[in-house]
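Researcher: Please predict.
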Amino acid sequence: MLHVALVWHMHQPDYRDPLTGRLILPWVRLHAVKDYLDLVTLGAEFPTIHQTFNLVPSLLDQLDAYVSDQAVDRHMELARIEPGLWTVAERSEIVERFFDLSLQRMLDPFPRLQELAAKRQRLRDEGLGWEAIGARFTDGELVDLTVLYHLAWTDPRWRASDPVLAGLSGRGRDYGAADREKLLAKHHDLMAATVPAYRQAAAEGRIELTVTPYAHPILPLLIDSDSARIGLPDAPLPSPAFRFPADATVQLQMAVDSHERRFGVRPRGIWASEQSLSPATMTALADVGALWTISDEAVLGRSLGCEWPRDAQGVPFDATALYRPYRWQDGPAIVFRDHTLSDLIGFTYSTWGVLAAARDLYARLKAIEAKVDTGDGVPALVTIALDGENCWEFYPEDGEPFLRAFYALVAADPSLRFVTAEEHLAADPEVVPLPALHSGSWIDGTFGTWIGEPTKNRAWDELRAARQAAADAPQVSESIWEHVRVAEGSDWFWWYGEGHSSANDAQFDMLFRHRLQAIYLGLGLSVPERLQHSLYDDPAVPEDLQRRGWLWAASQDLGGSRGTMHSADRFAGRLTWGGDGEGPAGAWLLRWQPSRGFQPEPGDQLVVAFLMAGRGSALEIPDLGLAAHGRLVVSLPSGECVWFSAGDSGWVSTSLTGVTSGGGWEWRLPDLAPGEFSVSVRLLRQNKPVGSPTDPVVIRWHIPEPAIASV
């Protein structure tokens, strides 16, 4: 027999702008109607499959605010404006933001939405800006867009089972203002049903509910930001360090209290944000009564001084060591997740056929079952733990066919028992003492996603300064401490700097800075001028580029299309571009730096595709399905490259010489005049795309007037 713990992590940061009270982004509401309720409801159809759901208090607080009609997000506001009364800016905002969904899957049920997406792309390819595109959409098209966007974000289960939603989906077009109100009312009903559904499932013993520190901070970094040095010995870190261990205690205690108020019991398990552990964190978890916690195999491997190589069936050679609970000193038990199985659900199976994916996951569990033996009479425990909301939009029908097929396979097999971690620990397995505990997270076993990069460090510096101002004040209200706690959340640091990017980077930056501004304002202090500007703003050209003649340089993190998630095979890194000032206009220089930890395999190719606004017809790139006016193909790890220009009779190739620089490569690109470009970056392995595709990055390359350039 094999025990399997399936743990779903439900998390959103606090989107409420403290300076206006409005929710800037809609993701709590949209994921509630697409993911939170349907996942626990589907589980009720398979009562022998016990699961764990980790619910973050900052998410539940916002859900409560929606249900009590105390919250309205920006997308709701735009959807409720009477047709014909949208301003130019509002029309622009709708056509830009109401396609924030998976174009791969979520458009499929809605031909009208596909039609509107195609029109938007045609206008974009013509080089029009968002205001001009908004003006080219009729009022009727904008009404349809606001309705269909919200329908696409509504889970297919509810679109099929609810008469109102089924009627709106079936009509497909020609909606009115009343239809929008009916749809938003149904969203309210689904949100209102969410917490009671979890409460009932927990009372029935089908699920275990766990909690995360209140605003989802990285606890080891709150306790001492220098703990990042353990996993990243050479990384630059903020100085002075951020050291407020009492804040970690408060974040934990508030989370436990919040959970008890909502669900009537204290949580036995605590998922430390981003599975980030350290010795001091384990002490803090023990102090609030945690029975168990969870981390990643990377942290266990670094703690034991080993890695987890796998056989042809994907089973770790030392499987027994991975699939059992551990304990650090007298702290809570720790279960360590199987990173490979978790990533298969999060990133890979969405591209497979439903049955093939379900059978593959089932077969992998059976292979593990055949090879593990704990020797204590208690089955081994395989822990699969991942984000429970963001991967499903890439699956057919929001993942339900895949989950249903997988659940059916395991429910019919008595040798696979899906348990909660608490149930496994109740079977009294041997809990192995850890000889050491590495300080790290589920991402590479380090904290590099949240600290150790210039922009991230700048954010920590500003947070420390604001937190110190609160500590030094003679009187501090609870509202100020709330701003401190929210600003300590992990999400702001996730989006800053290298590693991840999204269409909402500007909003995340604004929300973080507004929290810090609210601290100063609440203390009666002047807001530092530096917080009036984006923390991304760093106009200085890097010194090494200045020395080599780069002018007008700019840089942007590439992130990935699943910016809220993180795959182990990420590669995208960062682009930096600028001019060399040679000739009448100068040439475009480009630098690509891969993500930290990326290791190319022999034969890998990097493809950087350029689509120029306002230019003529583009050509399709083989193997990628992308259209472009130019593309750079780089052989890795050698850096040899070829430039392809779109000509009248096909692609025209030119060999280029790249140079290694800044941990990556640089090139001087031909055939690109100044203008606006949409740049996409992909990795090919054995001529097939791998990893998470990056969202196109819009970059503008301009040549200043000669008088300015000579200054």
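Model: The CA atoms of residues 432 and 450 lie 30 Å apart.
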